[in-house]
Design brief:
663 residues, alpha+beta, six-stranded mixed sheet, five-stranded antiparallel sheet
């Protein structure tokens, strides 16, 4: 195809237009070649040849049409138009030449603001680098209705959106990793008159309060942040800070900031104030004992005296809409004599912290707890990544706990399928290698809703379970998340070296796993419509979680090129047809996770509101201006129904929840 394009374009090259036409045609060819190399790398489905052929044919057709246009231009070219064409040529080369991702200066507005580049992973790392620079202050103010672009939908009013994420990244020195950042909680209160009351406050855990008083780092961070003084001042101290920076749980009229390596921290739902000294953490009436989550198999009484044998609470609980129960789990890691993770699943009825059901499962051979899980009517499903841990460097004060996790990409991902009725021990099924799964929007019993998936005649539908997960497309060997803290030098100033450089990170894909529980087989493909998408933080209508009829997934979207990059828009994916609807916020506006809110009196699955934070970098806010988009899930591609702009930049957050309450 490439040779044909070059030959065809060269045929039209004549006289003085040789240099310009050849430059233009070769630039287009480089673009096609880059797209071809990307597609050649993709082997995510059993049969993508037809879709690849269509797309490559379209690319070739576009390139040939481009060459014809250049011939038409060159034939009528005059001395006056030569300068203009040279400028166009330079612009095309700038747009299509291979560049290190993010290597656009924020002054290159002709490219960054060009809608034709949306979806091509064009952005400036100078803009993106502000994502994990510390939020400068805590705030509280009201945005009047007349200052909101559009209008807050009436059925969102008298509700609250809570968000949390890392927001502070230094004390006496900068933290080592952005995920070591102290939790910053946000509250958007949607008032009856259409205004919005905004509050931001740091989650003042007991560790945060100590460090705030001393002005120094007093606790080690999970991902490598250490106290001053080197090994001598960190040796033997296995305490880590509860960062409370990952998710928000609202249950039984109480609000908690969650961190998967710690216990829930309770905050006031109205003011975001953390509970008083000594009562910051909530143990669910003894279900989540205090202490580091490592256990060496010693008696509980002995380990508790030296700060070991505690449990942590998941940062990703799920609500089963059928039974109206909170499905959550707490865990501890056994590192000796045999490595395993013990997980206690609890189901809490509405308005209660007393579980109506508890199931304890031991994941043998597992060394690190999963990040997320799926809940079906019959099962808990966990995709467990293959990580190994060496605790000695952590105990010696040489590394953080997270730095002691080492990936093993050549070993298979493992699925642990745990019956919710406790009728049997977990079923362990090996999946593909080089796979790493992060966020699970939902799972369901049975085969996928996709009509093209046929159940073999010898197999029954109830033998299957399907799980969707956002994960990396090529898990590499090395320190866990080490690449997230590494960035090369740039040709322009950046706000923070903690902000990840996406050139070092694998693309995140929405995967579909079809698990045959009886035969212990796993089939992994990209979810329909996701073959070339880089997405993250997928979610579904919470009323459809765990149900096979659930067909729409909403996610933040980076690009159509299938490479890693920051989120620049949102996508709605139809799991039944593969159809997708997209809205781009622009190359200088970075989007966060969507919170999906069912509309009142909804009749269709996509009758939902989508609430997504953003940070936009423009001439009047070069460091970024944060805000909130409100989109209609049924018409996502039409853009926001309302845009709420804050008076400041907020660090890039993680997860949140919406609560319909007047309390």
């Amino acid at each position: 195809i490439i040779i044909y394009i070059i030959s065809f374009s060269s045929f039209f090259v004549r006289n003085n237009s040789f240099a310009t036409s050849l430059s233009l045609s070769l630039s287009k060819t480089v673009f096609v070649q880059e797209r071809l190399s990307i597609h050649a790398k993709r082997r995510r489905t059993r049969d993508m040849s037809f879709s690849r052929k269509n797309e490559l044919t379209k690319l070739a057709r576009d390139a040939l049409a481009f060459c014809v246009r250049q011939r038409q231009l060159s034939s009528s070219m005059t001395t006056t138009t030569t300068t203009t064409t040279e400028k166009e040529s330079e612009l095309v080369k700038q747009k299509t030449q291979r560049r290190r991702r993010g290597n656009y200066a924020p002054t290159e507005l002709d490219i960054l603001n060009d809608p034709s580049t949306f979806g091509e992973c064009i952005y400036s790392h100078a803009d993106w680098s502000h994502a994990y620079a510390s939020t400068r202050k805590e705030s509280e103010y009201t945005i009047k209705a007349e200052n909101i672009i559009g209008e807050i939908p009436k059925d969102l009013r008298e509700g609250i959106l809570y968000r949390v994420g890392p927001g502070k990244f230094e004390r006496e020195k900068r933290y080592k990793h952005m995920l070591d950042g102290d939790g910053l909680a946000l509250r958007f209160g949607f008032n009856k008159d259409g205004s919005v009351h905004f509050i931001s406050k740091f989650v003042r855990t007991k560790e945060f309060k100590e460090e705030e008083a001393s002005g120094k780092i007093e606790y080690r961070g999970t991902f490598g942040t250490m106290r001053e003084g080197g090994i001598l001042n960190n040796f033997g101290d296995i305490r880590t800070k509860n960062l409370a920076n990952t998710n928000i749980l609202y249950w039984n009229d109480r609000v908690f900031a969650l961190y998967e390596a710690g216990r829930p921290v309770e905050i006031d739902g109205k003011t975001l104030d953390t509970r008083e000294n000594g009562k910051e953490e909530f143990d669910f009436d003894g279900l989540v004992p205090e202490g580091q989550v490592l256990s060496f198999g010693l008696p509980r009484e002995l380990e508790s005296k030296i700060g070991l044998g505690g449990k942590a609470f998941t940062a990703h609980p799920h609500v089963d809409p059928t039974d109206d129960v909170l499905c959550a789990w707490c865990w501890r890691s056994f590192v000796y004599p045999e490595k395993a993770v013990e997980i206690s699943f609890h189901e809490f009825p509405r308005n209660s912290f007393v579980p109506e059901k508890t199931i304890v499962a031991r994941l043998e051979g597992c060394e690190a707890a999963p990040h997320d899980f799926g809940v079906t009517p019959k099962y808990y499903a966990m995709a467990v990544n293959n990580l190994t841990i060496d605790p000695l460097p952590y105990i010696a004060g040489l590394k953080g706990a997270g730095e002691c996790l080492v990936s093993q990409p050549d070993l298979p991902l493992k699925f642990y399928i745990i019956p919710r009725d406790g009728s049997s021990s977990p079923t362990v099924i090996e999946g593909p290698s080089k796979a790493f799964e992060i966020h699970t929007p939902f799972a369901h019993d049975g085969v996928p809703i996709d009509d093209s998936f046929a159940v073999p005649s010898s197999e029954a539908n109830d033998e299957f379970m399907t799980l969707y997960s956002a994960g990396w497309d090529d898990f590499k060997e090395g320190t866990f998340l080490g690449e997230w803290g590494a960035s090369q030098e740039w040709n322009f100033p950046i706000a923070s070296s903690l902000t990840p450089d996406f050139n070092n990170i694998d693309s995140t894909v929405l995967w579909r796993y079809v698990v045959n529980i009886t035969k212990k087989t796993v089939e992994r493909t990209a979810a329909p419509g996701c073959e070339n998408l880089c997405i993250d933080h997928p979610h579904v209508n919470p009323l459809y979680e765990g149900k096979r009829e659930c067909r729409f997934v909403y996610a933040s979207l980076s690009n159509f090129r299938g490479v890693s990059g920051p989120p620049l828009g949102y996508v709605k994916i139809d799991l039944k047809t593969g159809e997708r609807k997209v809205w781009w916020a622009g190359n200088r506006t970075f989007c966060e996770e969507i919170v999906v809110v069912p509309k009142e009196n909804a009749t269709n699955e996509d009758d939902v509101w989508l609430l997504g934070m953003f940070s936009s970098h423009q001439e009047d806010f070069p460091d970024g201006q944060s805000g909130l988009f409100v989109l209609d899930g049924a018409n996502l591609e039409k853009g926001p129904m309302a845009t709420i702009k804050l008076n400041e930049r907020i660090s890039h957050g993680l997860h949140g929840t919406y609560v319909k309450t007047t309390r």
